[in-house]
Specification:
The complex is a heterotrimer.
Chain A lengths: L1 H16 L8 H17 L6 E3 L4 E3 L1 H19 L3 H4 L5 H20 L3 H19 L6 H32 L4 H10 L6 H17 L9 H7 L2 H26 L4 H24 L4 H21 L3 H31 L1 E2 L2 E2 L9 H4 L1 H15 L5 H15 L3 H27 L11 H19 L2 H6 L1
Antiparallel strand pairs in A: 1-2, 3-4
Chain B lengths: L1 H21 L3 H21 L3 H26 L22 H21 L15 H9 L3 H22 L7
Helix pairs in contact in B: 1-2, 2-3
Chain C lengths: L10 H24 L28 H25 L1 H29 L6
Helix pairs in contact in C: 2-3
Chain lengths: 463, 174, 123
């Protein structure tokens, strides 16, 4: 609870720091605020609290998910030095909105009442619409913001309608009330409940870009400024899956037989759509958008095979995915600035040609992150996939497992295109200057990816 | 009597909703939307949600609609000719058929309809009572739902910042 | 305070609405149909004398109007929350007052931000 209050206040403080003459104070202030929130979150470790009349549930799972969100946000902010130099950018506003959006994400993670979920989703989505369109000179960015806004509000409408139906069936918005309603109905809950659950699921699956609702993702991810794409693909996804996990495991575990088939079908569709389309992309950024869809598919396996293992598997996978994604986008940001086509950064694969020659460190960071996303052993991504797959085995979902393994093999193909471009292609990439702090963040993310890949038990002991 | 007024409002809502769909002029569509929203407000009153009706009129009719009309005026261009956007607002563009739209919309409608008809609402079967809801809403908002209420303030603040960053000219004139 | 009501209590409002709309629509139709109409090039001009008319009246307006409308909607939503609070003002006591101050404070911070940013400046 404390981090939510703190971040709301800090957001306003940052907004007003923007009126100072110098912009230099903004970045450290934002980083400091996120660290304070991170520390405040751990004050509640190992205590399980329900706050404010059953509105918010803080337990270890919620704290772990919010930690991932905060770490992702910290890294994104740390990589955002460019804004301070750009005359047109409004860094104070961006940072303030980022902090507010974390408030929304944390509400989505720890909600106990559907109202909280709705307000959280709205805060996060509205912030993302704004940040997507923040590059006002770029027509692509404007288009992406508009698309995202229209589609997103449509999905929110579905979700709200679903919540209304759930209320109609249960007479309460609280997750545990929904659960006890289902248990008391002797296996024959009202039809409204099923409809409501489906509509809420549709709304949430849209936010995490699962397959039939994924069509907005490539355009929005490509149009948004790269840094905010990194934020979107990590924070929104982590918070969205935490919210789905909460909803399905607390409220609807009693009617697992109803929704697991639907979720499994969506998982299969997401895996197919994300991976197969990613193969045909020429732009690295667009490939990352499809890759984020495919990772939504892997994460959905954990939900469809809901069980003892899936909680820790989802947390671990979210962490591994976030670390790898942010470092990949961090490198893209640096590389794309070197080559411009028509005044815009070049985000195609060819921009990475021969990167390893003069920038071995950057190439290594990107290679590790690609390996982790592809799920190669000795990286965190491998263990994430392993844990999710073994959750599926526990439930006996063999066909989904086979599909997921096949699709991982497809994934290796498109992730390795970048690695090949960096190490085996000729290119005229000069030495890229990297600020020391920027470099530190990239190295830290890579180190964490490798450490988690070698000793995943380190993390499981925390759980 | 109440039944007749109810059906009148339904007629108003549905009729002007169709007007929004079928009219050729964007501005007319906005005015038809006004009628639709008024009709919905009337339905809210008849459903015993008086506060909701008042907020509907204040926010949607008084605010959002003005916003829409400003938006129309903002984007209006002279002699745009017969483009896709000046035609009547058929549900989909010419690139796609009607079939999919009808299948999806009809499917959702039929499922929802059957669900709502057969559903047993918690409040179902109680005598309809018309009590002013402002009082209850106020008490609930300030006690049970105080956290979402305060955080809705954050949401409004985000929207405010977003509107001023996106819409205002960002010339660095400090 | 009388808190129960019947839908028929809204009848006066409804009648007034119908009368107001009916008067406007009726008088417009009547005046269009009764009055004599003579069309000519000069008569159809918006101004019969002075500088010849140029261009279209419906030019795109400044974005500033739009921004003000957005801000209006936001504060409108805020005001809506005030009504149910005001009705219960006495019952909620100090606690409710502080809660409302907090909520208003968030938006007032936004308002101050807008003023400082010069969004409302009109040159």
């Amino acid at each position: 609870m404390l981090p939510i209050i703190l971040l709301s206040v800090f957001g306003i403080v940052l907004l007003f720091l923007g009126f100072l003459k110098t912009r230099a104070v903004l970045l450290p202030a934002a980083l400091l605020f996120i660290l304070i929130a991170l520390g405040a979150g751990f004050l509640e470790w190992n205590k399980s609290y329900l706050y404010f009349g059953d509105m918010l549930l803080i337990n270890n799972l919620a704290i772990l998910f919010s930690t991932i969100v905060l770490i992702s946000a910290f890294m994104v902010v740390a990589l955002s030095g460019d804004f301070l130099e750009d005359e047109m950018a409004q860094p104070a506003e961006y940072y303030a909105i980022l902090l507010f959006s974390i408030v929304g994400a944390m509400m989505m993670i720890g909600y106990e009442n559907l109202i909280m979920l709705f307000v959280g989703v709205e805060i996060l989505s509205v912030s993302m619409y704004i940040l997507t369109g923040s590059d006002k000179r770029n027509l692509r960015s404007n288009e992406a913001a508009l698309k995202y806004f229209l589609m997103g509000s449509f999905a929110t409408g579905f979700m709200l309608f679903g919540m209304a139906l759930l209320y109609g069936a249960v007479g309460s918005f609280t997750l545990t009330d929904i659960k006890s309603y289902i248990l008391l109905s002797h296996g024959r809950p009202s039809l409204l409940l099923y409809m409501g659950e489906l509509l809420v699921l549709i709304g949430m699956l849209f936010k995490v870009s699962a397959a039939p609702f994924h069509f907005w993702t490539p355009d929005v991810y490509e149009g948004a400024p790269t840094l905010f794409t990194a934020f979107m693909s990590t924070v929104v996804k982590t918070a969205g899956f935490a919210a789905l996990l909460q909803l399905l495991s607390v409220s609807f575990s009693a009617i697992y037989g109803f929704w697991w088939v639907i979720l499994a079908a969506i998982t299969a569709l997401t895996l197919l759509a994300g991976n197969l389309t990613a193969v045909y992309q020429n732009s690295f950024k667009r490939m990352m958008a499809y890759s984020s869809i495919s990772h939504a598919g892997y994460l959905l396996i954990g939900l469809a095979a809901l069980g003892q293992q899936s909680r820790s598997a989802l947390v671990f996978y979210s962490l591994a995915y976030s670390l790898a994604t942010i470092s990949a986008f961090g490198i893209l940001l640096l590389v794309a600035k070197q080559h411009t086509t028509d005044g815009r950064p070049d985000e195609s694969y060819s921009a990475f040609n021969g990167l390893s020659r003069n920038n071995p460190l950057l190439a290594f960071v990107l290679a590790v992150s690609m390996l982790s996303l592809a799920g190669i052993p000795l990286t965190a991504g491998f263990w994430g996939k392993f844990m999710l797959f073994s959750a599926a085995v526990d439930r006996g979902m063999v066909w989904i497992l086979i599909l997921a393994v096949l699709m991982s093999a497809v994934g290796i193909y498109y992730y390795f295109r970048v690695v090949i471009a960096m190490y085996f292609r000729e290119g005229q990439a000069g030495r890229i200057r990297v600020a020391p702090f920027y470099q530190f963040i990239l190295i830290a993310a890579t180190a964490l990816t490798i450490i988690l890949g070698i000793v995943p038990g380190l993390f499981q002991n925390i759980m | 009597m109440v039944q007749i007024v109810f059906y009148l409002f339904i007629l108003l809502t549905l009729g002007s909703a169709f007007g929004v769909l079928l009219t050729r002029n964007v501005l007319y569509a906005a005015f038809f939307l006004l009628l639709t929203l008024l009709g919905v407000a009337g339905l809210f009153v008849l459903a015993g949600a008086d506060f909701l009706a008042v907020s509907q009129i204040m926010i949607y009719v008084g605010g959002v609609l003005v916003l829409i009309i400003f938006g129309v005026m903002l984007t209006h261009t002279k002699d745009a000719g017969q483009t896709d956007f000046t035609r009547p607002n058929y549900v989909l563009t010419r690139h796609r058929g009607w079939l999919w739209a009808l299948v999806v919309a009809g499917g959702i409608f039929s499922v929802l309809y059957s669900a709502l008809v057969r559903a047993n609402f918690v409040l179902f079967g109680r005598e309809p009572f018309f009590e002013s809801t402002v009082d209850t809403i106020g008490r609930q908002l300030m006690t049970e739902f105080v956290v979402p209420f305060e955080i809705a303030g954050v949401l409004l603040l985000v929207a405010l910042i977003g509107a001023s960053t996106l819409a205002a000219s960002s010339r660095p004139d400090r | 305070m009388n808190t129960t009501y019947l839908p028929s209590d809204y009848l006066p409002i409804f009648i007034q609405l119908v009368l107001a709309l009916g008067f406007i629509v009726g008088s417009m139709i009547v005046s269009h149909n009764i009055g004599p109409k003579r069309h000519s090039e000069k008569k159809d001009d918006p101004f019969e004398c002075g500088i010849p008319v140029k261009g279209d009246a419906r030019t795109p307006i400044s974005i500033k109007y739009f921004l003000i409308a957005i801000l209006f909607v936001l504060f409108d939503v805020e005001v809506i929350f005030l009504y149910p609070w005001a009705v219960n003002f006495k019952g909620l006591g100090m606690e409710g007052f502080i809660e409302m101050i907090l909520f208003m404070g968030l938006l007032l911070a936004g308002f101050y931000y807008i003023l400082r940013k010069g969004v409302l400046k009109w040159e």
